[in-house]
């Protein structure tokens, strides 16, 4: 016993003497947790504050300014003309409803397509097939957004692939318009919906599915009672992507939407053609408000607690 | 009264790719029997269980349940239920909802199924835990919930896949007693998969010892322990000194391969008692185990054996390097095939 205890103090006594600058710095940081935290968070907080929150605040402020209709100069003067126009005008009501409708449709289509694919990937496919499918789903994300939108333009075109495939069956392409835009957007955001659902399914142990069927539940019941409740957070995470991305999109709508007006295209034309930045800012507050309402509703379901 | 088996497995084989997990298992399990499948991991015992439950489809062979061929039936069409190794409790449901689940999917009304679930919880001594979530329970309690959930639908056969593996020793011993009691009270067939030989010996009416995808020995606990038929069984169920035919002839003067349990060997001073085989040797190691001491002896004839000696008043002096004689009655030599 005595031999063990006598050697320990020697080593403790010698280490501070040899401490280098780096070592002393490490010791200081180790002792001062708050300094450590500040160093770690300063860069991301700076980024978040300046680029993200400041931009949103600037948007909000701009919405309360107006434009001189003759010179096109921004008049920096507080008034709510833009807000009342956006809230009161029937045009904006119609466009808002159309945009929310498109967002809901795109989300519904994506969830219906994503569920079986994600289930196959997570629970049925072998390791190799699983990996191949993940790559196949990620691959479109590596291609340019514009390329994909223009690809759909040619798919939807008169005498395009859809006409060629469904023509003999009496069908035809929906052409460039609301339906075309919804189809294209559903395609564009599909990977963002599949991946969170796939991840959620991966986390459901196989033994739960075995247990459910062991206790007498047929496949449908197992899906309804066990799988679905456990992957709701994943479905909601995916729906946030497809819903919010559709609300704000204007490029795909411009390319395949024909004359369809959405909130994004209104913002776009006010920034560009009409040169009315304050009105554009006021319009862009609409999808922002809708997203806040949507996230609030999602939060109330408790689904975000499990993300 | 017919003697129709609860479970009959005929030529049951399962291959994963080129690997044979289970090859040609034939087995009859009687109604009301507490039957254990004992074997090391990878011996195929769990795969056999999963084929009985219906989670795996056999490559060939059949599974019969009370005379009915269920080989192709889905798990939800079979009158067997499983207690899973990881318990597989549904995390989004309360304990009561978990236990009532089997009745819910059978369309039983909520009051009736909740009452049945409460009774089942009482059976496993978990009254009043119904409102908790599985995450708020200890391992032992989760295990009981899994048991109640499987029993509430009144299966004819209950399959238990290493159900006590994750519990600590005291809890495991307590659960063993309870399992045995529940099985006796309900009178249903239990098929119990374990790698723990002591557990299998304690609980079972009969034991099938599995190795490399097949049954290597089948019998009651005493049979398997006292008369191991292969060197594998001799050392997987308890430990034994195994003698090949040549070694048996040279060392013991005995004809044919055999095994000897350490507790059947005795250390004597001087000459071996009449009727025993005396084997002179040197003490190589002594391991104190409390109630007994394990003494490793290098026999002069060139074989190392372990002797288990009770620590009573007559304990002989067994210092390292002591010259001793190890004595054994010939009737304790268990012949190997």
Number of domains of chain B: 2
Secondary-structure arrangement, i.e. CATH architecture of the largest domain in chain A? Orthogonal Bundle
Strand adjacency order, main sheet of chain A: 1-2
Using only C-alpha atoms, the radius of gyration of chain A works out to 28 Å
CATH class of the largest domain in chain A: Mainly Alpha
* Low-pLDDT segments of chain A: 1-9
- The span between the termini of chain A is 53 Å
Radius of gyration of chain B: 24 Å
Report the CATH superfamily of the largest domain in chain A.
MetI-like
Q: Uncertain segments of chain B of ≥5 residues (pLDDT<50)?
A: none
Helix content of chain A: over 70%
What count of domains describes the coordinates of chain A? 2
Order of helices and strands of chain B: EEEHEEEHHHEHEHEEHHEHEEEEEEE
By CATH, the superfamily of the largest domain in chain B comes out as P-loop containing nucleotide triphosphate hydrolases
Provide the helix percentage of chain B: 25-40%
The total count of helices of chain A amounts to 14
- In terms of structural class, how would the helical and strand content of chain A be classed? mainly alpha
- Rounded mean pLDDT of chain A is 87
- The top level CATH class name of the largest domain in chain B: Alpha Beta
Would you kindly provide a written description of the structure presented here, covering whatever features stand out?
The complex is a heterodimer of chains A (307) and B (337). By secondary structure, chain A is mainly alpha-helical. Mean pLDDT of chain A is 87; it is low at 1-9. Chain A has a two-stranded antiparallel ribbon. Chain A has 14 helices and two strands, in the order H-H-H-E-E-H-H-H-H-H-H-H-H-H-H-H. Chain A is globular and about 75 Å long. Chain A folds into two domains: 2-62, no CATH class; 82-306, MetI-like (MetI-like fold), CATH 1.10.3720. In chain A, 77% of the residues lie in helices and 1% in strands. By secondary structure, chain B is α+β, with helices and mostly antiparallel strands. Chain B has two domains: 7-236, P-loop containing nucleotide triphosphate hydrolases (Rossmann fold), CATH 3.40.50; 259-335, OB fold (Dihydrolipoamide Acetyltransferase, E2P). Chain B contains nine helices and 18 strands. In chain B, strand 9 (206-211) and strand 10 form a beta hairpin. In chain B, helix 2 packs parallel to helix 4 and helix 3 (110-123) crosses helix 4 (139-151). Chain B starts with 6 loop residues before the first strand and ends with a strand. At the A-B interface, helix 10 and helix 11 of A face strand 6 and helix 2 of B.
């Amino acid at each position: 016993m005595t031999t063990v205890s006598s050697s320990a103090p020697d080593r403790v006594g010698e280490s501070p003497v040899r401490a280098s600058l780096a070592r002393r710095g490490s010791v200081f940081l180790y002792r001062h947790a708050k300094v450590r935290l500040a160093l770690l968070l300063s860069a991301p907080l700076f980024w978040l504050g300046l680029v993200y929150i400041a931009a949103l605040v600037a948007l909000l402020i701009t919405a309360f300014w107006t434009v001189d209709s003759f010179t096109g100069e921004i008049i920096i003067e507080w008034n709510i003309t833009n807000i009342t126009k956006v809230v009161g005008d029937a045009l904006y009501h119609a466009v808002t409803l159309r945009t929310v409708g498109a967002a809901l449709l795109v989300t519904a289509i994506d969830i219906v397509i994503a569920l079986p694919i994600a289930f196959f990937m997570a629970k049925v496919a072998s390791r190799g097939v699983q990996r191949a499918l993940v790559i196949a789903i990620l691959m479109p994300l590596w291609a340019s957004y514009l390329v994909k939108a223009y690809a759909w333009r040619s798919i939807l075109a008169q005498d395009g692939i859809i006409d060629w495939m469904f023509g003999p069956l009496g069908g035809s392409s929906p052409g460039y318009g609301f339906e075309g835009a919804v189809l294209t957007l559903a395609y564009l955001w599909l990977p963002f919906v599949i991946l969170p659902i796939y991840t959620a399914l991966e986390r459901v142990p196989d033994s739960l599915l075995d247990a459910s069927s062991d206790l007498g539940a047929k496949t449908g019941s197992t899906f309804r009672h066990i799988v679905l409740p456990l992957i709701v957070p994943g479905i909601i995470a995916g729906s946030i992507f497809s819903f919010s991305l559709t609300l704000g999109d204007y490029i795909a709508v411009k390319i395949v939407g024909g004359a369809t007006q959405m909130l994004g295209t209104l913002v776009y034309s006010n920034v560009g053609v009409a040169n009315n930045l304050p009105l554009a800012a006021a319009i862009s507050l609409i999808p922002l408000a809708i997203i806040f309402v949507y996230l609030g509703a999602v939060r109330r379901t408790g689904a975000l607690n499990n993300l | 009264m017919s003697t129709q088996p609860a479970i009959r497995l005929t030529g049951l084989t399962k291959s994963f790719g080129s690997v044979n997990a289970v090859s040609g298992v034939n087995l009859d399990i009687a109604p009301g029997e507490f039957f254990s499948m004992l074997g090391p991991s990878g011996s195929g015992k769990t795969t056999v269980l999963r084929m009985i439950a219906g989670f795996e489809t056999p490559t060939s062979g059949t599974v019969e349940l009370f005379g009915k061929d269920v080989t192709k039936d889905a798990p939800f069409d079979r009158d067997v239920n499983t207690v899973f190794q990881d318990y597989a409790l549904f995390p989004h449901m309360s304990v009561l909802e978990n236990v009532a689940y089997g009745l819910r999917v059978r369309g039983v009304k909520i009051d009736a199924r909740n009452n049945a679930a409460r009774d089942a919880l009482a059976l496993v001594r978990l009254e009043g835990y119904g409102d908790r979530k599985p995450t708020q329970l200890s391992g032992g309690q989760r295990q009981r919930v899994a048991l109640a959930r499987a029993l509430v639908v009144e299966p004819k056969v209950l399959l238990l896949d290493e159900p006590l593996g994750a519990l600590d020793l005291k809890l495991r011993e307590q659960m063993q007693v309870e399992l045995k009691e529940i099985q006796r009270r309900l009178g249903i067939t239990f098929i119990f998969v374990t790698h723990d030989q002591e557990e299998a010996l304690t609980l079972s009416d009969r034991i099938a010892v599995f190795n490399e995808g097949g049954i290597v020995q089948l019998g009651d606990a005493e049979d398997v322990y006292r008369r191991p038929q292969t060197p594998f069984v001799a050392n997987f169920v308890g430990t034994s000194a195994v003698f090949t035919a040549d070694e048996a002839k040279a060392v013991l003067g005995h004809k044919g391969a055999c095994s000897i349990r350490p507790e059947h060997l005795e250390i004597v001073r001087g000459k071996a008692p009449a009727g025993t085989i005396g084997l002179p040797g040197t003490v190589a190691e002594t391991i104190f185990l409390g109630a007994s001491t394990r003494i490793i002896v290098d026999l002069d004839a060139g074989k190392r054996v372990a002797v288990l000696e009770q620590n009573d008043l007559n304990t002989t002096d067994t210092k390292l390097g002591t010259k001793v004689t190890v004595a054994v009655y010939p009737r304790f030599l268990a012949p190997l095939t």
